Queue: 3 jobs
Job 1
Amino acid sequence: MLLSASPLDDPATRRAYLEAALAAWDSEALLEAVVYAHRLFGWRETVTVAVTRNLVYWLREQGYLWPRLPQNALLRFWQLCTEERPPLSPRPIRKNSSQYAWWRGLRRFWDTLRWGGVELPRLEMPPKPRYALIRPYFSDAEFARLVEGARSHPEGRLRRLGVAVLYLLGEAGVWPRELFALRLEDFQPAARVLRVRGEKARSVPLSKEATEALKAYLEDRESVAGLAPLPSPYLLLRMTPKKGGLGRPLNRDTLKGLLERALEMGGLEHPRPTGALRWRAVRRYLQQGLSPQEVARRTGVASVLSLKD
């Protein structure tokens, strides 16, 4: 929800407000603008807030005046953050994913100033870190072995649940927390579409195989849901009475057990199977010829590079 009676509401006052904040290196005023812009455009604000706080502090400590900044100011700040440490943090930004998030946060801060109508100095921006497609992912052959492993589960209901979950994670690109929030009406078998709820709400087209896997699971779900005193609205339910969980919504522990069993039955090992399944979905979409922007939209990933990058 946007703040009421804010100078950021009106383009006529927004620029003056931001220019005054930059002239004084007022981090609180600039953070207010960052949060406002992120909520307005639906950006994720957490890392941008940290970047803004560190950058403004560093620029003030260097004695720089806005807008008379050295052309390499952002490069120097980036070098400090990645080779030593951010000025307000005890540790350097070393992980590839963290560097990408900070680079993106730096761009978002600049985007916020541009949105505010501020005239920006011509500064060199650090090069974009490239990490997305070197993430570990399951190959098509490994995914097929996982699906066969799930189909080999000794309990029939868990076979169909496991296969459905694998297709949602490894083909549709649904995240675990999104998986747990799915409602029965979110699956539209006739249209072969899944509606994903949450922070990155979206509609995802399903393959024929994924649709058939979900339809097969729904037959088991109907019998299990009928045992509960009140019908559950959630799409994915626990299929065994272990710890009184029969008919209750799928949770992280159940998902972990399903994936561990599928890995075991498929003769595979992986320390982070949910991440590998997600990046398998990303690569699959790219191989189908979708643009990186569309792939990011379908999977909820912050940003995606093309396979040629």
Job 2
Amino acid sequence: MTTVGELTAVATRLLRQAGMPDEPARRSAELLVLADVWGIGSHGLLRLPYYLARFRGGGLNPAAALRVLRDTGPIVSYDGADGLGHWQVWHAAEAGVARAREYGVAIASVGSSSHCGCLGLYTLPAVNAGLISLVFSTGPAVMAAPGTATPLLSTSPLAAGVPSQPRPAIVDLATTAVARGKIAAHAQRGEPLQEGWAVDATGTPTTDARAALEGMLAPLGGGKGFALAFMVEALAAGSVGPALSGDVPDMFNPHSNAEAQRIGHLVITFDPSFVAVDGNAQHRLDALAARVTAAGGRIPGASRTLPWDITEDTPVEIAESVRAELASWEASLHT
């Protein structure tokens, strides 16, 4: 067991040693650690060694700066210059908040970027401002159309943040039966997968996590899940780009470390009061959350500790294997 402050310092130091400037490194480190605080270790510090390897190999650009391509006011698009996705999507989310406050709605995109981790993180600026946000991203192709064996789509992740009170709802999911990061976490621990999660490279169902990383994942809910994944691909990869999922290098394949992922991210933010027919949007959002709770249910994301409730002394548990790998990278980057 360690603390948020300790892990953030380690991650920031490693990213700085890899060549990232101070502020992007710090923001990215905070987001990686927050994923671990949320219990989403598959998208937390477990990923950092893969990013460091890609910096070293040339597939990630540590000196990347966001460049504005177009800015109409409510819509802004950025070129990410093959930088780490975390700080870039956070910047887009904050830009969306500022613009949605002015225009009622905003769209911010980041193209030519890379993996950005847990998408639910990027709803936080909006929900903290009383706004609704939708976040879409993409990655390497791991999902085939039903009845076929050619990987076409990524896990097609999406997130939504709803500013209900007393706490926001945060929807965060992959449109595959399971997130690929969870497969990677099982592989690192040497644990078998649940049946029905994945197939190997030949299309044969497998519970071997390492074989699944080289194979494909089943869509969530069969054909309906594939349709939802197609929509996410159209928004993040097709509209933003420049790479479709079938052209995105796999960060879990060390042979692709020299290749940029060229991933697209899309953040949509809007003020619910602008679309409410009677001005009572916030009241209804609060009532919706209250009814779910009163019925014995749990609003999405209710178990996640919000950043404003976290201190540097907040305890975090990470796997010993992750801790050891980070220590190895610290020694390597010092030499």
Job 3
Amino acid sequence: MKPQDGPGYGGKPSPYSPPGPGSNGNFNDDAYHSEEEPPPFHENQEFDFGLDNKSIRRAFIRKVFLVLTAQLMVTFAFVAVFTFVKEVKVFVMVNTWTYLVSYVIFFVSLCVISCCGSVRRRHPWNLVALSVLTLSMSYMVGMIASFHDTDTVVMAVGITAVVCFTVVIFSMQTKYDFTSCYGVLFVCLIVLLIFGILCIFIRDRILHIVYAGLGALLFTCFLAVDTQLLLGNKELSLSPEEYIFAALNLYMDIINIFLYILAIIGRARGS
């Protein structure tokens, strides 16, 4: 006897379709299958990719700050040695030509990392180039610090740490987009360079303090911009492949802030 001929159906068509060949006769699976099945994959695809992008961006930020931390530890280790070891101070004061050699090495490595994308994205050559740049810059910074008093250097390091930490945290938390000001900051940098050339010929202590103050302020703004370039949710952003370039930008910002603050304190104290 067919199901629709049994009692209780009254000759009306069954709301269930008859099982097809090979069916196990389980009507519940056919009746409720459409309600229980998950949404199609293409509807979740965008959401999954969003999670992947966030995880990649977080990994990129962690990698940048790890590289930056290693750079700063090496640089300020050089500063400590050049500041507290008297023999090293005497050596660099006598052999000032080593500063020029370090500057040439720094400039070449900076050009390689900035201009050759294939080098700064290829492991391990990107780390080699960044290490050479960091060592040469560390020697120059340590040599500059050796010409200042120990108290002046320690004070400059402390102020730099407080300023940079505050700017980085603020830039990562605020909703204001500093990256839109990149062009204005670049123009200000050119003006600062011209101002610096004038300060070479005009020997005035107040003028040099003003120049150093403007330089510290400008690179503090650059630090805010370069920090937001890591986030990926602003008008401008860096690709996760550019972790070496991102670390280099932050490193140069912090070093310039330190050097300008050191110049302000040194000029103010007459050292």
